[in-house]
Amino acid sequence: MTNANLLTDNPVLYEARFPDEARLAGRWAEDCLRRYGAGPRVLDIGCGTGRDAAYLHGAGRTVVGSDLSEAMLEHARVHHPGPEYFRADLRGFDLAERSFDAVVCLDSALLYCHTNDELDGFLSSCRRSLAPGGLLVAEMRNGAFFLGRTELLDSPSVNGFTWQGITYRSTTTLHVDRAAQLLRRTRVWTADDGSPPVEQRSAWRLIFPQELRHVLAVHGFEVLALHDGPGPRTEPPWREGDSPAATADADRLHVVAALRHPI
């Protein structure tokens, strides 16, 4: 068992497992930024391999990408140049005050804030980094989906991909830790190159829509949009011209909030 992660520790494998040739996530984020009038300076926090940050850079924005994984950042600098990349922990980061017009946080990265203190640390950091009126755009799993629904919990999911002639397979089991309000994941990786199986464990915070509205308001944000889709990881996925839904109970949650009361 390990807390390491085969994909985030090996960015080329991550991009092989989760291809995004159409840059759907970056396009969705750019659409949100344009729809709600964000300025040009963007922080992509939890940027991963840098694909979305590079897309936003290509759209004409001045972009900084940050991540906790140095392996991801090294990959981003080589394969997705344009933004400035640096290492930072989203649970508490210190940048020049009022240096961004928007903070983008995609693919459930925000949910690595497991505790209230960590979530407060993230939002306090965003508040310091944003100019007045700046936007927070985030996309994540939706805690409300797991109220009475068990289809993602009932049986393991099995996925696979092939890279450089080696086939990798993952068996993933999810369970809800209600007391901690976490969605815990156990994933076992096997490969057909003879290497032994690797078991990995991780977790996401389960945040509910009304809870998210409250904590954002406490930190001086006004929610402009909060909905379950369409988005880059919904089914069907977001397409150009789509408007936000009026619901917030499917398995993904999307939020756009403006900083109204900076400190």
UniProtKB/TrEMBL annotation:
InterPro entries membership: Methyltransf_25, SAM-dependent_MTases_sf
Keyword annotations: Methyltransferase, S-adenosyl-L-methionine, Transferase
Pfam families with a match to the protein in the record: Methyltransf_25
Record-annotated Methyltransferase domain positions: 42-134
GO molecular function: methyltransferase activity
GO BP annotation list: methylation
Protein name as it appears in the record: Class I SAM-dependent DNA methyltransferase
Source species: Streptomyces maoxianensis
